[in-house]
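Question (not urgent): is this output format expected?
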Amino acid sequence: MTTTATRAMRDVFLDTTAALIDENPRVALVLADISSGVPQVVRAAKAHPDRVINVGIREALMVGTGGGLAIAGLRPIVHSYAPFLVERAYEQIKLDFEHQGVGGILVSIGASYDRAAAGYTHFSPADVSLFDNLPGEWIVHVPGHPGEVEGPLREAAATDDRVYMRLSIAANGVPRETGGKLLPVKDGDGPLVIAVGSTLDAVLAAAEGTGWRVAYANTVRPFDTEGLRAMAGRDVVIVEPYHEGTSAHVLSEALADRPHRLLSIGVKRVDLHLYGSAADHDRHHGLDAASLSARIGAFAR
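Got this back:
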């Protein structure tokens, strides 16, 4: 899960956002210092100073500004590290987007623990589950490769939907086009194992030589429950790069009318008080290939 792609998701996001600002007079970018100094943003700010807004280290103001721009008819893209964008400014997401009934595109970097060496302030394994607590529908994209960023971002910019895109330095070896649906990747007669985002390569490594069926998801809200029902047998496993159990309620509800067993694997709800690397945290949380092989293998017996 921790392979770093040659061209990072963040780079693709910033390139695409700068192009969208040039192409579409509705698109605006709101920042709280993070990414404000990168060349793509500097150029876009010089060309369109009214639509590239850096509020400084004020994340609540950043989200509130995005909501205000949406009320004014613009299409805001609001960007920061996941814990600053989602957890720190959650009340503003709830009030200034959700309660006001307007849409925007929230794009995070950092994922659950990309910057493990920066400590717990930069961790956000709870971000996706927080959107499930909002009454309106959010579209949530979890790309597993930089090549899966531009398409959904451009599609989101052309709508007024509420969208959250979760970017990471972790990446699978190759991009996969899913169209927002569950994508079959490996056939078999064993349990259906759903890999979300950058977990796919580790899942495939764990599944080598087994009868597991593997499917890939990089859009998790709305979840492709129709595809799930078509593929699922008795045993279903979901491997997510954020809190373990985040999607369990969605899968269980989709399969409520049929006997099934569900195993959720993800970031454990513990504070490890560890720094190290993202790969270290993968191992501690059991998201490396060896741990997945052991845990899913025991479940599938």
